[in-house]
Automatic annotation (TrEMBL):
It comes from Sphingomonas glacialis. Binds 1 zinc ion per subunit. SUPFAM superfamilies: AraD/HMP-PK domain-like (SSF53639). InterPro entries: Aldolase_class_II_sugar_metab, Aldolase_II/adducin_N, Aldolase_II/adducin_N_sf, MethylthioRu-1-P_deHdtase_MtnB. Zn(2+) binds at H96, H98. This is Methylthioribulose-1-phosphate dehydratase. The lineage of its organism: Bacteria, Pseudomonadati, Pseudomonadota, Alphaproteobacteria, Sphingomonadales. The keyword Amino-acid biosynthesis applies. Keywords: Amino-acid biosynthesis, Lyase, Metal-binding, Methionine biosynthesis, Zinc. Pfam families: Aldolase_II. Residues 11-198 form the Class II aldolase/adducin N-terminal domain.
Length: 204
């Protein structure tokens, strides 16, 4: 199990918010980020905060059921983060980005997944050692009810070929890793491949 202190998690979440905002992947108050803590609780972003202007006070703690431990209101999508931590004990951080490329791509392609093949960037994903392979990025429908989204994606994440990422249509990308650095790498690699696929389509 990968975990960290609340103090360290707050700094890491503030930093990742600024990084994602600088890339244009966290407009307005969109996105949410979390980390597994060494006391069994979880650090998550407070609801309604601009991610490029986060302070340490904009990161809070919740228990495994999503209940606030400090009186603040967590992100509305905290349940999706907690579902990943429950399913994968090795996961230490979860990130949710809202790039125009990812959202536009999810609206443009049909079906419940998209095949990413032949990209050198595939090697940024955990367990992938060659570009000469293919993975499927799952796509699930958006809902204001997080239980519906969780139920739709849960069985697909347990498939033997699953990758640590999925798209919510018209909404954005979720990616995770053993720690914050790996979660960042997954998000950046998937975002890059989505942008590359869109560029390739435009040249056809």
């Amino acid at each position: 199990m990968t975990s960290t202190s609340f103090e360290h998690a707050r700094d890491a979440i503030v930093a990742v918010g600024r990084w994602l905002d600088a890339k244009g992947w966290a407009p307005a108050t969109s996105g949410n980020y979390s980390a597994r803590l060494d006391d069994g609780s979880f650090a998550v972003t407070v609801s309604g905060r601009h991610k490029g202007r986060l302070t340490r006070d904009d990161v809070m703690r919740v228990d495994a059921g999503g209940a606030s431990l400090d009186g603040k209101t967590p992100s509305a999508e905290t349940a999706l983060h907690l579902a990943l931590y429950r399913a994968f004990p090795a996961v230490g951080a979860v990130l949710h980005s809202h790039s125009p490329s990812a959202v536009g791509f999810s609206r443009a392609v049909a079906g419940d997944g998209y095949r990413l093949a032949g990209h050198e960037m595939l090697k940024a994903l955990p367990g992938v050692a060659t570009h000469d392979t293919a993975v499927t990025l799952p796509i699930v429908e958006n809902s204001q009810d997080m239980a519906i989204v969780e139920a739709a994606i849960a069985p697909r994440l347990l498939e033997s070929t699953a990758i640590p990422a999925y798209l919510i249509r018209s909404h954005g990308l979720y990616g995770w890793g053993s720690d914050m650095a790996e979660a960042e790498r997954v998000i950046e690699a998937i975002e890059w491949m989505i942008a590359a696929e869109r560029a390739e389509r435009s040249f056809r």
